Amino acid sequence: MYRSKRTGAAVVEFAIVAPLFFLLVFGMIEYGRMVMVQQVITNASREGARRAVLDGATTSEVVAAVEEFLEQASVSGGNLEIRVSPDPPGSASNGDPVGVTISVPFSDVSWMPSPMYLGGTTLEAKTVMRREGIK
Questions:
Q1: Would you tell me how many other CB atoms lie within 10 Å of the CB of residue 110?
Q2: Which residue intervals define the domain TadE-like in the entry (predicted)?
Q3: Residues 20-38, mean pLDDT to the nearest whole number
Q4: How far apart are CA 112 and CA 63, in angstroms?
Q5: Quick check: 2 pLDDT over 70?
Q6: By the 8 A CB rule, do 50 and 84 touch?
């Protein structure tokens, strides 16, 4: 007799707990994707810098190396920005720093249609290496 009065209790409990559960799940997905993309663009900037420090390197070669790395990792965004400093990298003297910076808005690379937590965040990675040359 006592059980017959509790027939809707599970539905009410689910209605209270479900929104919190889904917020946590979507938050974990969003933050996990952010960490993954940050690692990918860090590695892509490292690959670009490795190309930029070589003798005779051009900006277009560096950008192509970065874009190829990002394409293989399935990370692309309409507002992806790749900066090489100095531009062109071949203008740096032997031993001078050469940097490659990549930035992308998280909303362009998120798996969520509308990121709830990190929508306005811009992910950025920068690698600086010393120019190599035979002189």
A1: 21
A2: 8-50
A3: 93
A4: 27
A5: no
A6: no
- Range 108-112 contact pairs with CB under 8 angstroms and sequence separation of 24 or more: 108/77, 108/78, 108/79, 108/80, 109/33, 109/37, 109/75, 109/76, 109/77, 110/30, 110/33, 110/34, 111/29, 111/30, 111/33, 112/26, 112/29, 112/30, 112/33
CB 124 within 8 A of CB 37: no
Q: How many domains does the chain have?
A: 1
pTM: 0.82
- Expressed as residue numbers, the domain containing 97 is 3-130
**Average pLDDT of every residue of the chain:** 88
Residue 111 lies in a domain: yes
Q: Where are the alpha helices (DSSP H) in the chain?
A: 9-52, 59-72, 106-109
CATH code for the domain of 28? 3.30.1300
CA–CA distance, 85 with 81 (Å, rounded to integer): 13
